[in-house]
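Re: zinc ion structure - here you go.
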Amino acid sequence: MEDLLQQVLDLGKGNEYLDIRLEFFQNIVIKSINEEISKAFTYQKNGLGVRILSNGAWGFASTQDLTKDNLLKTVEIARKMAQIESNRTKTPIQLADIPISEDRVEVNCEIDFREITLEEKIKEILGWHKEIHVSDNIMRTIVDYATIAARKLFWSSEGTKIEFIRPIVNVNLGAVAKGSSGVRAYYQPWGGTTPDAGGTGGHEILGKNGDLTETCQTIGEKAMSLANAKPAPNLRNIPIVFDPAYMALLVHEIVGHPSEADRVLGWEAAWAGSTWWKGLSKDEGNPTKIGSEYVTIYNDPTIPNNFAYMLYDDEGTPCKRTTLINEGILTERMHSRETAFIMGVEPNGAMRANTYEYHPIIRQINVYWGTGDWKSDEIIEDTKEGVYLLGANIPSIDDQRFNWAISSQEGFLIKNGELTGQLYSCTATATTPAFLQSIDALAGDDQLLFWSGCGKGDPMQGGTVSNGGPTMRGIATLKGPGS
Ligand SMILES: [Zn+2]
């Protein structure tokens, strides 16, 4: 492998900068409904992406053919693309400096899922279906299982050489039940994964040492209770308490994406949107308070086992915890080397490509809400009249993340500090600035991370993300079904 990477570096000599990502994937996907396997397949994917900076412009090309002749062609395509792009580039791209790293990162895998046979996996999956089926009123059980074994080598013309070996396991669980309110579905929070049903690591990270029994039973019980819940009412500007799973999608949409520096600069405006706080940031010399003291938000890819765990980004920049908002004041963005140079700050390791086939872009990785000084129970007890929303479902957000609406998996009315009737079809909606200013309680005892996917860019790139937070209270409007 080293010979191959050296060959590409040699072929690209004479350009301002060049980097290579050589990647190997071994993936398994098993989808199943009602104890029937609907899809089961494994696939391998290997290839190389090369990025060249020449005359102040980027060129990029990728290939699965790793023969010398084809590598020469691939480097030439990337160089030509940079040349063409440079003819229309008004401001030549410059890169902020990063330390040169030589490192090998291998995530520990106590129970290697590659050593579990397909038959054993299917047997386990069918067992999970049985556990979800807690009642005859469960009409459908859903178990989707996926693993990725990824190996990546990153080399740059500046001398950075990183190898990253990363196993990922992910189980999505769901149930559909019938009851007095009709037919209701319950999926893991945010249509993604609870902290005990996946992440970066081996089979042991599932449940208790690979045992998902309790999680599966909870899914079935939640679907059953929702099928007997009442429809959510419409309540304007009320105190809403959000659980950590709802917080995952909330922080992803209203803080994570707007904190990506390419959005702040308006580069993503035509595709994924921009940022309502563009022009208000510290980078323009104007530190701005955009939320209450309880709004402190971090991005930290280095937390072990998180779904998007990494210690270096796809430019070889060391990752670190970045404080995006500190007690309501805008502080940092998530950066590439290019945007860090433009804004005069240090790169913080937020460039990612889904695979070697794509040019890396700035992506939120593990954005989460910091903790406060309340206990989660106290927040409910302190709420005279309000609503408690658990689990996130579907987001609807405008391009600038100014208006947001996110539905929950379930909800409860709060009366005099106690949870009363269970609700289905709950959607909270607010404008982001007013909502962030309204937050008046944040727990310190139940912060959790959840896993899901995210899409960004053109061509669109998928990607694993982690998000989360503790229980929190703010003012928003509740909408029920059909409103
Ligand atoms: Zn996203």
